[in-house]
Amino acid sequence: MIEHSKGNDHELWTKFLHGNDQVLSLIYLRYVNALYDYGSKITPDHSLVKDCIQDVFCTIIRNRQSLSPTDNIQLYLFKALKRQLVREIQKSLKYREIDPDNSGRFEISFLQSFDHTEFELSDEQKKALISAIESLTARQKEAIYLRFTRGMDYKEIAVILNLNYQSARALIHRAISKLREILAGKTNYFSQILLCIFRKTGKGVLQQ
Amino acid sequence: MDKYTKYTTEDFLADDSFIQWLIDPTEEQDNYWNAFLQQHPEKKHAIDEAKIVFGMFQHERERLSLDETYDIWNNILKTLHNPATSRWLNILKYAAILLVVFLAGGISYYLYESREQTHFDLASVPVTTSSEAKIILSDGSEISLEKKESEISYNSSGNQLIVNNDTIRQNQVTGREVMNKVIIPYGKKSMIQLSDGTLVWLNAGSQLIYPSTFQRKKREVVLIGEAYFDVAKNPSKPFIVRTADMHVKVLGTRFDVSAYPEDPVVETILEEGSVALEVVSKKFAHSGEEVILKPNQKISLNKEDGVANIKTVDVSMYTSWKDGILKTDREDLVRVIKKVERYYNIQIEMKDPLAGGYLISGKLDLKGSPEEVLNIIKLTVPIDWTKKSNGDFVIVRK
To answer: What is the location of CATH 1.10.10.10 in chain A?
Structure first.
């Protein structure tokens, strides 16, 4: 993971395993919003996401004696949340089979998130953006979400998607190539849209 | 730098430090990539394309409100109440710990994390009951502020601060902001000069988290409680005050923010300049909207009914606390008493809830003792007060 300092993770986790109760609430506060955002991409059912986050933490406390050390708490929690969500969704769809490793249900709800923000996009611009993203498979979307939104590295993405390192790289590489094909010839059009997004999120990376 | 000269769009997006720059740009990284582009203008197309692909996946993050965050945690505790699985667990201890963490730094960390823009090291935030005024430096060391009114000032490079005439040095990590935190308990207040020259008066029972130097494109601080800001002008680096319910964004101006977790109302009062407010908490009607305040305007967000209200006010009413004066204009006695409690760190019990509805107007000088202040209030509204053996005050209706 790029953004969080892992050295600190190892220390926090070890303290928790050795019976330090304070650190669990610190771990909870540090990751709960990242987990909530990730879960909300897997299912639009927000209360299910909240329940599953709760279950993940309860399980950790119950199994404290038998947990192994980790230097990457976020990865551990993301993996646990995904497993829990897939299990719950399966339960609710008793008669339908879902392969837990094939996260066919992963949808990044872009349409919804645009409605909630103040991006000043025309309907046409929104449509172009969404159709470009929708051209990706659910697995590609998940991989790219983990990479570009959560800043994970390939090793971490491979763990969450149950892939080997090379396949994770290839998956993302193919997704990006596909997006580039769509962008080809329309770069100016898209940069106009994205300038607007960056302005809103306060990231100046598109400043020329 | 050489390896990047052969990079394609895909290669840039596969590079961890390139992604880190896009996710969380620091000035150092900006300089690096700008220099690279100047030397290799032929790479501009690939980098721009990489930025566009990256930008397609930047969207509003889902986040929990503070209430939801706390509810889930409470449920975690409840589930564990099952004795079969929690023989080692002391529920009350857990509850108390979270409460303290929330009060002592949880909220502030949460505010930062939710935007993922922090490098504030949580492990360095000691759990504290905030009964002592202090500064917590980025390495976790604490400087205690013994005076009733402390003055803190940072030099422009942020590696040296002066606390009530004592000079303290702290190590700077180049290119990264290191977070400092000031905790002021009830009964005390403090004035802080930040490294950019901005002055902050921190009221009793408040906390401010800020970087010792502002390395980013925005100057961001987190506030719990109340503070008056006199922001140094810098049009290229907006100054943002984050609180649980709203963010206040300015370029250079004077204003007051009151956001005590225990108060039913969150307020921002603008004295000069202009500020843009973003209501972040989902429980308010204006959630997600940006509101512009004009000088002498006050916005109040009512946490109970979610209603936001803007009106023109006499600003000195809201900012006089920094000079030790409490001004009120037709304000409920119960709110005035709350401010007096915070100012002196005392408990005042209202025997008759109806008395809390008395409206008070005028000026209270808080330089004297709490007894003197209560005597002045007694002249205005029909109440009387007594002092209990434990030092608490009791107000009764006459």
So the answer is: 110-201
